[in-house]
Amino acid sequence: MKNWQIWMLLVLCNLFWAGNYVFGKYVITEITPLWITFSRWVLALFFLFPIAYYFEKLEWKTIKQDWLLLTCMGGLGIIGYNLLLYSALAYTTATNAALVSALNPGIIVIVSVFLTGERISKLQAAGFLFSLAGVLIILTNGNVAHLLQANYNQGDLLMLAAVFVWTAYSLISKKLQTPPITATAVSSAIAVIMMMPFAASQGINFAAIKPLALGGIIYIILFPSVCSFVFWNLSVKAVGASKCGVFLNLVPVFTAIISVMLGENITLAQLFGGLAVFLGVYLTTGLLDKWFARTDKPAGEPIVKS
């Protein structure tokens, strides 16, 4: 693929993920978080397994070796994260949820430091503090001075919990031998099996679902669950994870733009908090360190791109 095609895939990938927050906000008024999660992944499986077979040939030997990790990933990333995300959208705005979620890369770096003993630079440590400050601005609606007395939005706190669940999911996924699309398909299948008795017990009246919510769940199944993941993995394979990771900052930007187009107001707390989160993630993930490393090379020495 040409570079512009890869960048286009990455833009579309993050645009579709942003739509998950916006459409999820509408769907949650008609369908419970459990049934959104269950229906999203049970139908996505019909696409994920053929795609996994086409790109990765479904290596059953590695799947058997990773079955415990894949089960944990299904419980955390497919069930836990999605239940928390859609529950959060019942109480907070799509923009707030996306901004809090933007803290994810920084949290992953910091938790990795504690678990592996990996050292980070002063810039990365400062970045984590910036990200944390940004999230606190969002959680307190700009009233950080009254941090302990603030009446926190339940949805924002649920989204913060989702960030930590996704961090655990991400760290587990690094230990896998199973290729990424196959791992998602298998962990999703395990999660669907785990959710089946609870979904059956809760039940759902499909006839009562309004067209907007039905369209929303179809969007969530096709685009964030299938298209975004395939586009992301094709891009990572082409240019590497570090370059693709920068594009994740587009998710809250796209979410805010779509939300404004649909009538949601953006507050100063969201604006300044979001900027602090973006700056913090940029620092924490080491992107600025890498930039300094490239620009500080002696004259005449080639700059090696990562």
From TrEMBL:
- Where does the record say this protein resides? Cell membrane
EamA domain mapped to chain residues = 8-139, 155-285
Task: Tell me one Pfam family matched here.
Answer: EamA
- Assign the protein's first listed, main location to one coarse class: membrane
Q: Does the keyword Transmembrane apply?
A: yes
Q: How does it sit in the membrane?
A: Multi-pass membrane protein
Enumerate the UniProt keywords alphabetically.
Cell membrane, Membrane, Transmembrane, Transmembrane helix
Write out the GO cellular component annotations: plasma membrane
Domain of life assignment: Bacteria
Bilayer-spanning residue ranges: 34-55, 67-91, 97-116, 128-148, 154-172, 181-200, 212-232, 244-262, 268-288
Q: Does the keyword Transcription apply?
A: no
* Family from the record: Belongs to the EamA transporter family.
Protein name in UniProt? Drug/metabolite transporter (DMT)-like permease
**What is the scientific name of the source organism?**
Anaerospora hongkongensis
